[in-house]
Design a protein that fits this description.
The chain is of the alpha/beta class. The chain contains nine helices and 15 strands.
Length: 305
């Protein structure tokens, strides 16, 4: 059985590298165009697998060429797709503009026409037998059902709360590893400071830990006792697309190794930083050995990592 299971977005990305962000009603020659698998949970699982955990996706993927690409891409990074269903319909896709001047990314989404995921006994057995279940707010009904079953079985539920979408508050009570973006944390709590937002989320939903990611500023975690800031690692960023997804996948991997939450956060921040130095959400995920070397070069003791 896989150590990590996940339900969420699996997206066919078209990555368009541009020298700067275009103005309206102008033309701009692109530098490169490439395709990649994307989506928070899909990329998170790929990252966890590349780092060394066993991972399986639970999803509905399309029989169209994009769906076939997504299946092959997940398998390329070692993610088990045997629990995925393949149905007729248009794949979830995104066009992503990568701004070379800043390293930022802008996404244009087409959510496709695939039917919703319905959980089977095989899905639930895999979830209950895993160590971490990942969700990102997509496939919400199935994700909530899976999260409930995971918690009953003593499995960590890691919720990648990246955006304030309708209904996602249904997942919050079941997430014992709650990792929202600063946008989600402050927006959902109406707090201006992430320090206040993370404590508010913790008091309302009682996870084991709440970890707010804040991009180049690193982030903050709160376990009910101590509020701690973890660092961002400065790098020459060329592509930030998927950086948050990779952070969550790295955190899931770290949980399977039994590390404390602060170590999980520092490790995940390093993985995310290294990912940003290369093009591609999944292709740029570093190996565990590369992460260890990166941390050691920056003065972090890595014994046991």
């Amino acid at each position: 059985m896989p150590e990590i299971t996940g339900i969420g977005a699996n997206v066919f990305d078209t990555l368009v590298k541009v020298p700067f962000f275009p103005k309206e009603d102008t033309k701009l020659c692109v530098e490169t165009v490439r395709t990649s698998g994307g989506g928070p949970v899909g990329t998170g699982l790929a990252a966890a697998s590349k780092l060394g955990a066993s991972a399986a996706v639970i999803a509905v993927l399309s029989t169209d060429p994009e769906g076939t690409f997504l299946r092959n891409d997940l398998e390329k990074y070692g993610v088990d797709t045997s629990l995925a269903e393949f149905r007729d319909g248009k794949s979830f896709s995104a066009t992503v503009l990568l701004n070379c001047a800043t390293g930022s990314r802008t996404c244009l989404l087409d959510r496709g026409t695939l039917p919703k995921l319905t959980l089977t006994d095989a899905h639930l057995t895999a979830i209950r037998s895993s160590r971490v279940f990942m969700a990102d707010g997509n496939e919400l009904d199935a994700a909530v059902e899976a999260a409930k079953e995971a918690r009953k079985a003593g499995v960590h539920v890691l919720y990648d709360a990246g955006g304030l979408y309708p209904g996602v508050e249904r997942l919050l009570p079941y997430a014992d590893i709650l990792i929202p973006s600063a946008e989600f944390a402050c927006g959902s709590t109406k707090k201006e400071r992430i320090e206040d937002a993370v404590q508010d989320l913790f008091s309302r939903f009682s996870p084991q830990v709440a970890v707010v990611t804040d991009g180049a500023n690193g982030g903050i975690l709160f376990d009910g006792n101590e509020l701690r800031r973890y660092p961002a690692f400065p790098v020459q960023a060329v592509d930030s697309n998927g950086a948050g997804d990779v952070f969550h996948g790295a955190f899931a991997f770290a949980l399977t190794r039994g590390w404390d939450f602060y170590r999980c956060a520092v490790f995940s921040s390093a993985v995310s930083a290294l990912k940003c130095t290369k093009i591609g959400a999944r292709a740029a995920v570093p190996s565990l050995e590369e992460v260890r070397a990166f941390l050691q070069e920056r003065g972090w003791g890595i014994e046991g990592w």
